[in-house]
Amino acid sequence: MSEKKLRLVSAISLKLVEPLGAVVANFSVLSFSLELLIWLFLTGEFKAGSGMTWQGGRIITAEMSFKNLIHAFGSLWKLRFPDNEDGADDLVAMLWQAE
């Protein structure tokens, strides 16, 4: 008696898995980079102990969607660099395209 092996078939073509994984990984890096920038704006510098702590920044951004990260980043940029609002608008426009 021969054994039959059950073979599972992926719902996604293997040709798409690698490019899809690259998109997901890069979007994750972009999202985390936005979180880091927001933390930087909130703490004032990359050193712990100045202004709000990194932990406070993580608490604030933990449940934020990418859309809310974009809004927060744009607003904090304009608060931090009031003479360079055009720079924020350009970056935010690119982030909206990525979303």
Summary of the model, kept short:
The protein has 4 helices and no strands.
Observed structural traits:
99 residues, 4 helices, mainly alpha
How would you explain this protein's 3D organization?
With 99 residues, the chain is mainly α. 68% of the residues lie in helices and 0% in strands. The protein has helices at 14-43, 54-61, 66-80, 85-98. The chain is elongated. The termini are far apart. The mean pLDDT is 83.
Proportion of helical residues: 55-70%
Counting DSSP E segments of at least 2 residues, the number of strands comes to 0
Mean pLDDT: 83
Number of H/I helices: 4
The helix/strand class is mainly alpha
| Unreliable residue runs | none
Order of helices and strands: HHHH
% residues in beta strands: under 5%
Our measurement of the CA-to-CA distance between the termini, rounded to an integer number of angstroms, reads: 55 Å
What Rg do the Cα atoms give?
20 Å
- What's the main sheet like? none
Overall spatial form: elongated
Overall domain count: 1
Outline the fold blueprint:
Layout: H1 14-43, H2 54-61, H3 66-80, H4 85-98
